[in-house]
Amino acid sequence: MADQDCISARISSNCPPETQRLLTAAWAHDAATVRKLIDEPGKASCQDPQTGETPLHAAIRACGPPSEDDTPEDLEAARKTVYELFLWGAIWNDVDDHNETPGCVAHRLKRPELYGLCVDAGTRAELLFGVLDGYEELGSEGEYEDEEVEVEMENGDAAVGEDGDEAPQLVSMEENGQNGAAEGMEAAEEEKLDAPTFQPPIPEDPDVNSEIYLRSKLTYTDGKLVDNTGNGVMMAWETEIMRQSVDALLPGKEPGKRVLNIGFGMGIIDTMFADTKPSKHHIIEAHPEVLDHISSPESKFGTSWESAAPEPGAFKIYQGKWQEVCLQLLEEGEIYDAIYFDTFGEDYSQLRKFFTEFIPGLLDSDGIFGFFNGLGADRQICYDVYTKVSEMHLADAGLDVEWKNIDVDMKALAEAGKGEWEGVKRRYWTLDTYRLPICTFLG
Ligand SMILES: C[S@@+](CC[C@H](N)C(=O)[O-])C[C@H]1O[C@@H](n2cnc3c(N)ncnc32)[C@H](O)[C@@H]1O
């Protein structure tokens, strides 16, 4: 076992005795003692004040990587302990001092069964969060300061304990791989605490918010579109994903299809759609500077493109937010064979709103819908949780989804600030497999 994963490195000397007992029992996979020690809400997610170790981290980490010494009994004891902790409201996405969630530890240590329990718990928590309509609040720090309830919902947990141990950083998910962290309690509340609490790693950057993004200054440079704070809005490395998305949405690429694309960005996918010679090609874009770029003389999608349409209005840039433009499209009775959705600065609630409220009215009964699947893409467990969550919500909306795995060449994407990420604040993609969604109506 790597030094960093040893019990002595994980349970610090200044860990309060009660927390220490619980972490030790979890480490020993002593599910009965764990159950006995969790005698009030929130205890299942206590954290070592120095390492951020939670009982879930401890129970998973104690397994180490697979070895010849593993016995089925050991594995069963570990599984039972993790299960017990989730039963008592343990939080699936607390991070420790190495910025790892329990699921990240299970993934790194190649423990698929425990990883699966974490994914299931994350899925349950996020589904519950969705029922409570909480996605909107996930994004920005500070919003949480007066909203203990939001923190509770994020946790998928019943209550926040009085001793404040439940003030961890939480990994949250947004569109385009944007990832936010919920801060804990206010300083005033922390003063109430007599025990030291874990201070999670500072998030790499604050969240992107749609309103701020739509007012931001943008720069088109070779191979990327970035906002004025250095967020990558669109990058050329995604070209292969766009190409495969077009292949999936327009099988055979027959001419004469009716296409709707939401979010122009660098125009990569629209150029590919245009090459298939659609009979209708509508684009919705909200950012004024992207719209200026579209109408510039060097753009392929200016007025001459619009006037080259087979009939008036068939090739059209709709200026504004899709949330408003789509209402107009519905009213006008527009129907499409292929719809693609790829915006920026919006969280999952908006994607869900789009496919729940608009796809049924805008997509032909034999049509295909796709979206850029960057949800939680800076962490494997978040990506896996959101694959499940979106699959369930798509089914609720009457859609079946087939996921096509695409290898992502990570050579130039492996290190923050380097290669493709040069000049981009945040490495929003970290995974070597992209799951491309191909959605059709059920039945
Ligand atoms: C990631 S880029 C799209 C990239 C595009 N798929 C391509 O191939 O270049 C996202 C685009 O969505 C636009 N956008 C963001 N929010 C929007 C909204 N609510 N309505 C319409 N467009 C939006 C952004 O301005 C940006 O141009």
UniProtKB/TrEMBL annotation:
It is found in: Cytoplasm; Nucleus. It comes from the Eukaryota. Its main location: cytoplasm. One of its GO terms (cellular component) is cytoplasm. Keywords: Cytoplasm, Methyltransferase, Nucleus, S-adenosyl-L-methionine, Transferase. Residues 206-443 form the RMT2 domain. S-adenosyl-L-methionine-dependent protein-arginine N-methyltransferase that methylates the delta-nitrogen atom of arginine residues to form N5-methylarginine (type IV) in target proteins. Monomethylates ribosomal protein L12. Monomer. Belongs to the class I-like SAM-binding methyltransferase superfamily. RMT2 methyltransferase family. This is Arginine N-methyltransferase 2.
